Amino acid sequence: MAFAGQIAPLPLGAAGLTGSKNLALIRPDQLIRANNITYEAGTLQKEGGRSKYNSSVISGAPSILAGWDWIPSGTTQRMIIVASDGNMYRDTGDGSFSTTLKSGLTVAGEVPVFVEGGKELAAQDRKLFCFTGKNAVQVLAADGTTTSDISTPPTDWATTNQPTFGFIHEDRLWGGGNANDPHRLYYSITTDHEDMTGSGSGSLPIYSGEGEKIVQAMSFKGLVIVWKYPRGVYVVNTTDPSVGNWKISRISQSIGGISPLGAVAVDDDVIYMDAHGELQILSATTAFGNLGTRSLSDIAQMDELARVEFNLSDLSHTRGIFYPAKRQAHFAVAGTGNTVNNRRLIVDFNNPQLPRFALGTRDTCEALWLRKDTNSIPRPVCGGDDGFVYTMDEETRSDAGVGDEGLFQTPHLDFSFMEPRLGAVRKNGMFLELIMEPVGDFDLNVDIYWDDELSETITFNQGSTGAVLGAFVLGTHALAGSNLVNKKKRIRGSGRRLSFAARNSAAGETFSVAAAYLHFLVGDERNPDA
Fold this sequence. Notes:
Elements lengths: L5 E4 L6 E2 L12 E2 L1 E3 L1 E2 L5 E3 L2 E4 L11 E10 L2 E8 L4 E4 L7 E4 L10 E6 L7 E6 L6 E4 L6 E2 L15 E5 L2 E5 L7 E4 L14 E4 L7 E8 L2 E7 L3 E5 L9 E6 L10 E4 L2 E5 L5 E6 L6 E5 L6 H8 L9 E5 L4 E6 L9 E6 L7 E5 L6 E6 L5 E6 L5 E6 L11 E4 L17 E10 L6 E8 L2 E9 L23 E6 L3 E2 L2 E7 L7 E11 L8
Parallel strand pairs: 2-3
Antiparallel strand pairs: 1-42, 4-35, 5-6, 6-42, 7-34, 8-9, 9-10, 10-11, 12-13, 13-14, 14-15, 16-17, 17-18, 18-19, 20-21, 21-22, 22-23, 24-25, 25-26, 26-27, 28-29, 29-30, 30-31, 32-33, 33-34, 35-41, 36-39, 36-40, 36-42, 37-38, 37-41
């Protein structure tokens, strides 16, 4: 016998997470919680797990402050890290970090920045530069076992007045952020990245009367983009062969940057975090050399979430990366009440017209970088505060073998989006139906909320009906993306507004939910509370 009531679709996160607390502003296709999930492949899934890269803790269990995937030649791959114990370590692929490249660095409170350079001429080595703020810029030549100080720095880079960031632009090494002249950029000659004083090198003051200091700069589409703290974004147009014709322009005087690693390039855009924890987007316009900036956080009122979830006084330690394989930008920040980066704000760009947010609550990422895997795909890597380096987005959904929770929650919907009159009447719940991929023999727990009150928790098994499935890899195995199943569970309770939160947390558990429907009966319209 057919169901005689109404069936309402529950839009599942097509617009991603919102930080808004105003029920009138939250759209049905947004989520009010999206912890450790991903929107890839068109379903809501738990994001990939992580595992320890080094099987044994680094002596003293220091925090890993920075890391880099260093490939000095086509067949050699190293992991280079800077730790809070003041040492720079090299791993040769066995996860031991047995080589100390440099010791005695002053790194407390700093955000070390790695920059690839060198190979200015065919006979010269590739070089990895490390900017640490209080120490001379360190240079690792080829597959060396020690680093050296940069050979010919600017005279301003002396004692503890050292640059806090660097980048390569127009075949030159650039740097800045030194405390004795924090509004100036310095650049090398083109034939030697270590030569910052020879003919062809120089420096540029960047609106020295504005802001407190330059915190980051990067090369973007032939331009240098410069961020100051707490306000000021600028562009240096170096396209003219004559240095004297380079032009410095202001993009914004009202917003600025926050960290030496607080901005990432995403195709034709640059995403950066400002001093308020909001993400801004800087985009190239049709006129060459012109850039416009706007708030990305405004799309989903993420400023409200930042005030609740982030320690806004510790944003100077933000680390950002762009993960091309999944088209995601990740920003690691400290959560409220913390001074370690235990939150990740994730932005999914698979739909260029509608970036979608999620929140990572599982990982401590004191450092964040990309490392090429065995399939030559750069994958995220994070440095913990426990002496371990972790590879991320692993197929197994666990945190180094321990369970971690993936969770999403729909808005509190009154179903007026379906029919206006439904917003004013009581709905009597009958069934909740989920359309899922059968990803394994484990349960998805679903909490049912009527009018903001938890009514009950029901479970949906993630295996196929009538059979037990082992876990498999979405997008790889035969079932992935092509074998959806509908499962319907009886629910109790009633109210004007419904929300549900879906979650699981045991090691190896995941979920993949494509759609949801509420089966309900309308209450007595003469008595809306009936």
